[in-house]
Write a structure and sequence with these properties.
255 residues, alpha/beta, two-stranded parallel sheet, 11 helices
Length: 255
């Protein structure tokens, strides 16, 4: 996700010379950017007082990785975290430096500029929030919340949400094979249907429910399928349980 943000910034014209990346196992693309001036794994002492710092590590290693970043932070620094589950309190306590803190949850469509990110701020001025918004908007839409407690549900819905959509394409193809379609055709039909429907949803002013109703003729094939999917133990009940499980796991990661 950090790489997706970096790609977005560079696409919008950010000079690589103004970026430093601390990455123990850099991808080949970072080495290429280093040839254009990006500072790859410089001496941290040279980075003290950075304007903005993006923390994009796995939450499971945050307790080990984040304290080493504290010397880079000044009161003017905007610290932007995209770690799932890690709270503003965790960031404040681990960095132990006065600074603006932004906790954000992007999602993987950020890689193609179609992501959505939700953010919450602490000790941030309007200008610092605007800087964070500009950084995050390089990969898509940005929304703000005032209540950090909502971030666990945000993580469950949009942060993890792309996996649910990919699963839909996966099982739709499998169902097509079970119905007699050749596997390659079933996979293509499922992939293009999910992708095309997502784009229609993106472009249309109609609500998702209205678009669904537009496809459904009374007594037709779609109605027959929806009777199963929208039944008592159908997709709505499953999704509610899934989101609850992901939300609970996000809260556990904060402990």
């Amino acid at each position: 996700m950090g790489g997706a943000l970096l790609e977005g910034w560079l696409r919008l014209g950010l000079d690589p010379k103004n970026v430093a990346v601390l990455e123990p196992q850099p991808a080949p693309g970072l080495a290429t950017l280093a040839q254009r001036g990006l500072k790859l794994n410089p001496d941290p002492k040279t980075l003290a007082g950075v304007a903005a710092m993006v923390i994009a590590v796995k939450p499971q290693v945050a307790a080990q990785a984040v304290p080493a970043l504290a010397p880079l932070v000044s009161p003017a620094t905007v610290v932007l975290s995209i770690m799932a589950g890690r709270t503003l309190h965790f960031l404040a306590a681990t960095l132990n430096r006065p600074c603006a803190l932004i906790r954000a949850m992007p999602n993987t469509p950020a890689a193609i500029g179609r992501g959505i990110t939700v953010a919450v701020a602490q000790n941030a001025t309007a200008a610092q929030r605007e800087l964070a918004a500009r950084l995050l908007s390089a990969t898509g839409t940005v929304e703000w919340v005032d209540d950090e407690a909502l971030m666990d549900a945000v993580t469950a819905v949009s942060g993890s949400g792309p996996a649910y959509v990919f699963l839909l394409a996966e099982v739709l193809a499998q169902a097509g094979v079970a119905a007699g379609l050749p596997a390659p055709l079933a996979a293509k039909l499922a992939r293009e249907t999910v992708a095309g429907s997502g784009e229609l949803l993106h472009r249309s002013p109609l609500e998702a429910a209205a678009l669904r109703q537009n496809v459904t003729s009374p007594g037709g094939t779609t109605a027959a399928a929806l009777t199963v999917l929208m039944g008592e133990n159908g997709i709505a009940a499953l999704m509610t349980r899934a989101i609850a499980a992901a939300t609970a796991r996000s809260r556990e990661l904060a402990d």
